[in-house]
Amino acid sequence: MAEVSSDANTIGHAGVVTLFPAERLAQARHKLAVVGTYIPRKCGIATFTGDLVEQLRKYHPEIAIDVHALVDPTSDVSYEGIAGRIEQQDVDAYRRAARTINESGADAVWLQHEYGIFGGECGELVCEFVDRLAAPLVVTLHTVLADPSAKQREILNRLLGRASQVMVMSQHAADLLAAMYGVGRERLTVIAHGAPDRPFGRQHQFKQALGMGERPVMMTFGLLGPGKGIETVIKALPAIAARHPDVIYRIVGATHPDLVARDGEAYRESLQTLAEKLGVAAQIDWVNRFVDTPDLLDQLEACDIYLTPYPGLQQSTSGTLSYAVALGKAVVSTPYLHASELLSDGVGALIEPGSEDAIAAAVIDLLDHPAKLDAMQRKAYAKGRETIWPRFADAAAGLVEKAVAHPVINAARLFATPGLTGFTAMCDAVGMMQHAIGTIPDRSHGYCVDDNARALMLINRTESQDRSEVERLSDTFAAFIQYAWNPDRKCFRNFMGYDRVWCEDAGSEDSNGRAIWALGDTAINGRTEDLRWWARGLFDAALAGFGTVDSPRAVAFAMLGAAGRLQGEPDHGSAIALLRRGGELLHNLLDDVRRPDWAWFECVLGYDNPRLSQALIEAGRILGRQDWLEAGLSSLRWINQQQTSAAGHFRPVGSDSFGQPNEVMPFDQQPLEAQAAIEAAASAHAAQPDDEWYRHAHAAYRWFLGDNDRGAALADIATGRCRDGITARGANRNCGAESILAFQLAHHGMIALANPKRADSGGDFFENERISREPAAYIR
Q1: Who is most buried in 8, 327, 507, 557, counting CB within 10 A?
Q2: Exposed e or buried b for every residue in 406-417, given b needs 16+ CB within 10 A?
Q3: Which residues contact 604 (CB under 8 A, 6 or more apart)?
Q4: Chain-centre distance for alpha carbon 156
Q5: Reported pTM
Q6: Strand 495-496 vs strand 440-448: parallel, antiparallel, or unpaired?
Q7: Angle, helix 509-525 to helix 529-544, in steps of 10 degrees
Q8: C-alpha span between 110 and 145 (Å, rounded)
Q9: Higher-confidence residue: 18 or 420?
Q10: Where are the chain's structural domains?
Q11: Do 412-771 and 22-194 have the same topology in CATH?
Q12: How does pLDDT run across 553-577, given as a tens digit for each residue?
């Protein structure tokens, strides 16, 4: 595959960049995974990646770096000091790399993107990689096209959708991303291509070393191939040589390897033929070899005028243009994007593309006027001080810090009781509305029995001085569930419009399971005997119509309701029968699907996963089935492992995993999963007291408060609101009913789970339990 990149001829640095010393790793504040082509591969992106890694390690040793190199398996390039290899055409290699990086505990991933370096159409396999990353993603876009193909646009949109921060090397590229792709400026950072810091004005010394005496030297560098504009400079040479016969034009760089593979050296030979025909062959010095970075810098130091006569004006970055400016070279260039920005204000001379007359005029003017040449060189050198490696490294480290930034928060009590104003704001006389736009209830989506069932369970647990208000809410949610009951179909409806018209005659099996769960819970925990009596009656009626349902989650939800019902009536026959039927179903599923690396009930993961284990635990505990209990506990341990990051924080199974066989994807993360993890841990702890259950629940609750992959505080203690989850780019700003209820119920689950520990600690347990990240108080 062709590797189209800027100035793609340098092979990187002399010697191999050493690995981060072990003693520094222990002190590292952040761990960074860098992904891209890498030295010694002969590719401009590889050089940039090598520079990035080398300069960060040199100037910011507090950042530990793992390099994962994109490799061509047909190449004989030998890599040293890297953490991993990604074969660019192997889809599984991208998936394995993402999993390896996730398991390494990386705080951020920095991806170098150019369409040509990834496998698949237009490099689409990069999507297989970024979709599976958990850590914040930083993307350097080496090419931003003003007129991309449909496929290129699709890939870039996917990258931008996943990226926490986007780096480009020109303001034009940043403006293009903002205008064409709607990227917010807070995610865009312009960092000019870095450059070395060498003394000014050493042409004489390096000309002598290369045997050129005091001849005026022009130079162009890069992998030789059409599109560099070298023909135009050769055509300008007769006019330049007529005025300055001792001038020499040095063309440094080997022919592009893809061109060699296809055509041999035919292109270089055509340029040599052109030079002979024009009578300027003696004015050209062909340096036909690959050069490493130190050699390139020495070659640049020996020149007076550096030329980049590219005919294409969309090139956003040229590494050696940055080098030439930083070394204080006068530059004559066509106005491609990078050159237009870097050479403005007289730093260089910009000429029209494809014009040998313009090149000749610009070069002759500089050589005719040594003072003007010197002034331009000094201006370039001054401009280059802005991009020297220490400045570049500082900007790069700042970008890493920005990507991984977590809220710095004072110690807030983990068990502070959430307020209810955010909850009640979502409720009216009908019930609890489903969705919100930000914190504003969105009436257009109406109501559902799912949320009103959960709301009733929350009110069953809420302590409040205003008893009449709590009972009013209980009655409202109970009335909604009662009205949802369709006696003709012997099931519950689910969705109701804001106009109080039902959208269906029968809701999903899952929503029916949740309604039965809420009724079983209310039968024992309802606030009044009248409410408990009502719940018992409707529970029995609903259970009678549930006998043919075999959806695992729907059955698990109803089983949890049956477990609640049996607390108040241990010999309730229908509840026992449901537990028995559900236990057999779940246990058989686990036996059928489980294998050594996938100890789960299904070959896919869905939402509310821990509920399957929780229901099997409750059935085993209540019915005395030790095999079910052990299976429930072992499967819960497995899902807990899948939902724990390498750094130890809670990472819920993302909705991107749903329906993907044997895949655990990190985004989008939803509050429902944290609530399920906490309540399943409580069931496990009741059946088998062990600190492991509490520790996992504790991590899941901290997820709400900012201890998560994006450091995003989702929940607000003061109002009790909760954001709708975490995307690859951060928090979803909406605060819908499901999220608010998940946070509120998770709090009560943590209190119930922690009470035995509080007794063990002599009553000061809550005082000693503190979080390192306080929830932001902006969800108001």
Answers
A1: 557
A2: eeebeebebbee
A3: 657, 658, 659, 660, 661, 662, 663
A4: 14
A5: 0.77
A6: antiparallel
A7: 150
A8: 21
A9: 420
A10: 22-194, 203-384, 412-771
A11: no
A12: 999 999 999 999 999 999 999 999 9
End-to-end, the C-alpha distance of the chain in Å comes to 53
- Whether 538 shows a pLDDT value over 80: the answer reads yes
What CATH number labels 412-771?
1.50.10.10
pLDDT at residue 27 in the model: 57
Buried b (16+ CB within 10 A) or exposed e, 111-128: bbbbbbbbbbebbbbbbb
Structure tokens at 289: 């070899």
CA torsion angle 273 274 276 280 (round to 10):
-140
For the chain, the residue count is 780
Judge whether residue 24 has pLDDT over 80. Answer: no
Half-sphere exposure in the Cβ direction for 701 (13 Å, CA): 32
Superfamily of segment(s) 203-384 = Glycogen Phosphorylase B; (3.40.50.2000)
Spatial CA neighbour of 34 closest among 15, 54, 5 = 54
Is the Cα dihedral 656, 658, 661, 662 positive or negative? positive
CB 158 within 8 A of CB 150: no
**Beta-carbon count within 10 A of 132 CB:** 24
Name the nearest CA neighbour of 252 among 306, 203, 191: 306
293-310 pLDDT per residue, tens: 888 899 999 999 999 999
Helix axes of 626-642 and 610-623: crossing angle, nearest 10 degrees: 160
| pLDDT tens by residue, 132-150 | 999 999 999 998 988 999 9
- Alpha-carbon distance 232 to 253, whole Å? 17
* Coil, strand or helix at 563: helix
| Mean local confidence (pLDDT), 692-699 | 94
Q: 202 has which bridge partners?
A: none
Strand partners, 218: 249, 305
